[in-house]
Amino acid sequence: MRFELTKEFFETLQDAISVQDLVWISTNVCELHEADIAAIIDELEDDEAAYLYRLLDEDMQSEVLVELEEDVRERLLQTFSSKEIADQLENMDSDDAADLIAELPASQVEEIIGLISDTEAAEEIVDLLNYAEDTAGGMMQKEFIKARLEWPVNRAVIELRKQAEDVEKVYTIYVVDDKEKLVGFLSLKQLLFAGSDSTIADLYQNKNMISVKTGDDNEDVAKTMEKYDLVSVPVIDLQGKLVGRITIDDVVDVIKDEADKDFQMASGISEKVESSSSVFLMSRARMPWLMIGLLGGILGAQVISGFEFGISKVPALAFFIPLITAMGGNVGVQSSAIVVQSLARGNAHLGSVMKKLRKEALVALINGLILSITIYSITLIFGTPILGLVVSISLFTVIMFAAMFGTLIPLILDRYNIDPALATGPFITTLNDVLGLFIYLTIGMLLFNI
Amino acid sequence: MRFELTKEFFETLQDAISVQDLVWISTNVCELHEADIAAIIDELEDDEAAYLYRLLDEDMQSEVLVELEEDVRERLLQTFSSKEIADQLENMDSDDAADLIAELPASQVEEIIGLISDTEAAEEIVDLLNYAEDTAGGMMQKEFIKARLEWPVNRAVIELRKQAEDVEKVYTIYVVDDKEKLVGFLSLKQLLFAGSDSTIADLYQNKNMISVKTGDDNEDVAKTMEKYDLVSVPVIDLQGKLVGRITIDDVVDVIKDEADKDFQMASGISEKVESSSSVFLMSRARMPWLMIGLLGGILGAQVISGFEFGISKVPALAFFIPLITAMGGNVGVQSSAIVVQSLARGNAHLGSVMKKLRKEALVALINGLILSITIYSITLIFGTPILGLVVSISLFTVIMFAAMFGTLIPLILDRYNIDPALATGPFITTLNDVLGLFIYLTIGMLLFNI
């Protein structure tokens, strides 16, 4: 059953917590899926959250902890002793434990690791903390199942049964040689349906063995798993030894985060924020782009002031300033969005830049012509024929330029290893504003003979 | 080994194809992963693609066909006879086969289905074609493994071995009762490590059994699988009968597609296009937003023309028109992006609208004050104190209004079941342009006493 958190349920729960109605809570909440309980706790007030959390059994507690939103988890953990945190960590997958420790204040980390009673688990966590967060090493977990080449199937089943106790989800069995080097893989299905007299060496596959290296960037890991439709991928070190695995659920998070970041960047927000982030963080994340916009506005004012004499003679020229700047911005953003996406997908390497530019120029030509003719007809009704001519010629020119800049700038940024998503925000809009104003007013001066 | 398609490799391959160097092609290409071969074929010219494709063995052909880009696949299939297409379909998973058939011209579909020699496969495909593409039914595949409650483990292993031949990836065994109703699940790991005297009823789990219904929207399926960290999810019909399963790789595609669509919508592109789409499609996808922008520009012109007398008296007022419109647009887009994302994540239901508005107002207040003071100081250097006052007061007012509209409009659209991502494009920008102009020029008239 899927659970839907309704307003009624939530209010009933808050009442139950306030009167400490343990029966209602344990029948209606404690039996839910950990993801649902986490979603409920995310919405509760801090003291309610802490109360509900302590009613869960120990295994559920650590599972819920992993699923909570970062800021909620941080506040909840502040009500815990170091020993309690250490106990929770022991119940978690190594990657989740390492991620959680990385969120704690540095002063507490050493103490907590010292309090973990399972030394093997502690070692795994310490090992994982060595890797940078956004690499394959930082994403991987130490829980995986491996079989040695020379094992017969019977022995493999016994050994794997031991290993499998610690591994929640088993998708693939990795096959290693006597130096722990990854040599191939085997699906659980193959093992299940194998004759008992065969060995792993008879069963395993090494063709198309896809693995990632500990230092690989997490976006590359996501692209690899997506491209090859993998549910888990083994991680090897520089010597080719198997050191961990990454599962698809972590990769889905990377893909979502990446998409969110691109979307926010295109919307002019320079740090990753959520609707629950603090007002200060939200303000700061927006400021860089607003400052660029302000700078663009001031440059625009400079350009227009250069044409002050013209505007005082033909004030109607001022009417269409917003139209020109808006259209330049829109066209620029549209063009860059397509390029940014094809760069993000990694399929823009072979197609030549010239081919892209030609195509964008063609699209701009079609749209520019349609829009210019439309605006010419409309201005004819309201204004003078010359004004109509000025607006429509400028609009066409601005659209062509904006499309070219919108295409080129992300490509250039990418060439210099700057995230091209930067280009689809106010940056392109601002550039096109200033350029558009200059084109418009220059054409205006020429045609009005000022 | 992961394969990287380099320019050198690609050119060597093109040479090899032109001289029909079968040895080079079969050693260097035919052994690659299907995803890599598909990526190569995507880049080749049509005749090269058809040549290379026919060199692959039959199993590989159908796997590559699934991975190709839609337009490449369409052109490739035009070189096939209906019988050849039918043969390829038989080798595919039922969901891929149904998706492929849905792409074919309607006139050909019936003939091809008639030519599929495996009648069970044909029936499955026909069944899947009944479901709408963007529902769970349209995403699911008929290949899954199910066990009956009453089976003993030994019998289950034998039955499952039969079933597993058709199922490429086995993650979970679904457990059904004697009416084919889904009652629970079992991991392959549990079956592998179970004692041989137990039955499925002893082993299976029914707590937290997550399933989706055939009619569920594909985005809901993606959200469910993501929330519960599922690798596959069973699909049931209205009677609760198990009819299919959806695997995570298809969901990753939905997540990516959704993110791409949102990104494009925020960039003012109204239909899903790719850098390989036709010039006509690209132009058409951009036109609606550009027309809205044009309309906004014309409305803006109307607003400014209402203040023509004022501008002819103080032409300097025109200087800051682009600054006001740009800033209004930027702030509006930033505010709406946050709301759109939290709506997309589905965690905006409990937080009240008033709370969001208060927070956005606070952020706008902080940024508005900083930016207004900045612009006041700068205009003092270049212009008159009154102009500085007009610009800074208007900028502050516009930022406050833009933040409110940017927050409210996506919430209102969502309330009326319109995709709120619509709000973060030129729509909000345009609205804020017109409003900002009116505020700016009105304040200008008041302070300049015109």
Can you walk me through this structure?
The structure is a homodimer of 450-residue chains. With 450 residues, the first copy, chain A, is mainly alpha-helical. The first copy, chain A, folds into three domains: 7-134, MgtE N-terminal fold (Alpha Horseshoe); 146-256, CBS-domain (Roll), CATH 3.10.580.10; 279-447, Tetracycline Repressor, domain 2. Chain A has 23 helices and six strands. Chain A has helices at residues 7-18, 22-28, 34-43, 46-55, 58-67, 70-77, 82-90, 94-103, 106-115, 119-129, 136-139, 153-164, 188-192, 200-203, 218-227, 248-266, 279-306, 308-313, 316-319, 321-344, 353-382, 385-415, 426-447; strands at residues 146-148, 172-176, 182-187, 212-213, 232-236, 242-247. Chains A and B meet through helix 3, helix 12, helix 13, helix 15 and helix 16 of A and helix 3, helix 12, helix 13, helix 15 and helix 16 of B.
Number of E-state strands of chain A: 6
So how many helices of chain A? 23
CATH level-two architecture of the largest domain in chain A = Orthogonal Bundle
Main sheet: strand order of chain A:
1-2-3
> Oligomer, anyone?
homodimer
**CATH fold category name of the largest domain in chain A:** Tetracycline Repressor, domain 2
What is the strand content of chain A? Answer: 5-15%
The end-to-end distance of chain A, rounded to whole angstroms, is: 74 Å
Shape of chain A: elongated
